[in-house]
Write a structure and sequence with these properties.
This protein is of the alpha/beta class and about 375 residues long. Helix content is about 45%, strand content about 15%. The chain has 15 helices and 11 strands. The chain binds flavin mononucleotide.
């Protein structure tokens, strides 16, 4: 698995792990891959602590960060809305629907002393502090999702020797990212967890590889074992970018109820829904997604109004999912179709070792095929 990109980044394996969990990021980097911490929704102070913790854990091994930098969102033409402008744009009908949904499922209110996680800021300028903070750390890679990185982020990457990557769900996105100056394109297919387009990984990756050559491409979406890693490299990718497979690892801080649901889910148990973020994102199907998909209910609002609308409801569901059957039914999270193959809790190191062993085994089988 010695691709040029892996060599340039000092990796033993070209395995890039998107995760919101610092333990997973550090464990992947320590096992020879590259852990990439998703920083959406962190306060600056908390982010600084997370990055310092990872650096202490990984020592000289490389790690990276990922930001949500949507090109289009409600209010993007005017640089974004402030909190009160967002609140004015959330219709009463949506608030009522959500209140009724929680009442039907008997989801208790939050205790008075519970504070909600910070909202993730949308807009380049709104994220400038975060981007400046991550560049003060020893990151080797910074990735942008939902839109191309701004020119000043690319410049900072060049100055500091940090590779800049961007996620693409179409060939057009990939070309736009390369025009913006990225060093790596992550071609992410339909089967992926989180925000995703409509073209499958099998179809997308070779098209993107050809369109942006010689810029290296990572394959993302539906990669959860060594055969899929081998297939990604066969499609011309220089590595794999995985998100879902880490969610059922020992290190992952996935909500225990959701982790159990993931372990039991089948290949067809995910849905692309706008119900959590306002943009289509693949997630586990649950009573939550069913309610939002029902045509007799209101449509989800655009980003960032939908996440603002559902933030408190989601906190209420998560806090009570272990002991309230209604919350348990509603609970879900982002995950890809590969969830159907995630049937056992394993350590990150085991996942990495299995990737490497199955890759070697598959290559041997392919050699046998070629030799007849
Ligand atoms: C729980 C979860 C959250 C995600 N959040 C982000 C994110 O904030 N930024 C991002 O670039 N990609 C995000 N993604 C997508 C991943 O970066 C990755 O492309 C995707 O998980 C690959 O497909 P897979 O889930 O089949 O491995 C997320 C994926 C998951 C599963």
């Amino acid at each position: 698995m010695h691709t040029k990109l892996a060599k340039d980044l000092g990796l033993e394996f070209p395995v890039f792990a998107f995760t919101h969990c610092r333990d997973v990021a550090a464990a992947v980097s320590k096992a020879g891959g590259l852990g990439v911490l998703g920083v959406a929704g962190h306060s600056l102070k908390n982010l600084e602590m997370e990055l310092e913790w990872i650096e202490n854990e990984v020592g000289d091994k490389p790690y990276g960060v990922d930001l949500l930098l949507p090109a289009k969102f409600a209010g993007s033409e005017r640089g974004g809305f402030d909190a009160s402008q967002m609140d004015e744009r959330i219709p009463e009908e949506h608030r009522k629907f959500l209140d009724d949904l929680l009442e039907q499922h008997q989801v208790p209110p939050l205790a008075k002393d519970v504070s909600l996680r910070p909202e993730f800021a949308v807009g380049y300028e709104q994220q400038r502090d975060v981007i400046e903070l991550v560049f003060e750390h020893k990151i080797s890679l910074i990735a942008s999702a939902l839109g191309p990185p701004p020119p000043w982020m690319i410049e900072k990457g060049r100055e500091r020797g940090v590779k800049v990557a961007a996620l693409a769900g179409t060939v057009e996105h990939a070309r736009r990212h390369v025009e913006a100056g990225v060093d790596i394109v992550v071609a992410q297919g339909y089967e992926a967890g989180g925000h995703t387009g409509t073209i499958s990984t099998m179809v997308l990756v070779p098209e993107v590889v050809d369109a942006v050559s010689p810029i290296p491409v990572l394959a993302a979406g539906g990669i959860g074992n060594g055969r899929q890693v081998t297939a990604a490299l066969a499609l011309g990718a220089q590595g794999v970018w995985c998100g879902s497979v880490w969610l059922t690892t020992e290190e992952a801080e996935t909500h225990p109820v959701v982790k159990q649901k993931f372990l039991e889910a089948g290949l067809g148990d995910t849905v692309r829904s706008r119900s959590l973020t306002g943009k289509p994102a693949r997630q586990l199907r649950s009573a939550w997604t069913d309610a939002w998909e029902d045509p007799s209910n209101p449509d989800p609002l655009p980003m960032p109004l939908q996440p603002r609308l559902v933030r408190e409801a989601q906190a209420r569901i998560q806090r009570t999912a272990h002991n309230n059957p209604g919350s348990h039914d509603l609970a879900n999270y982002f995950v890809g179709q590969i969830v159907g193959s995630m049937n056992h809790v394993k350590s990150v190191r085991t996942v990495m070792e299995e990737f490497a062993l199955e890759y070697a085994d598959t290559m041997e089988k392919l050699d046998d095929l070629a030799e007849g």
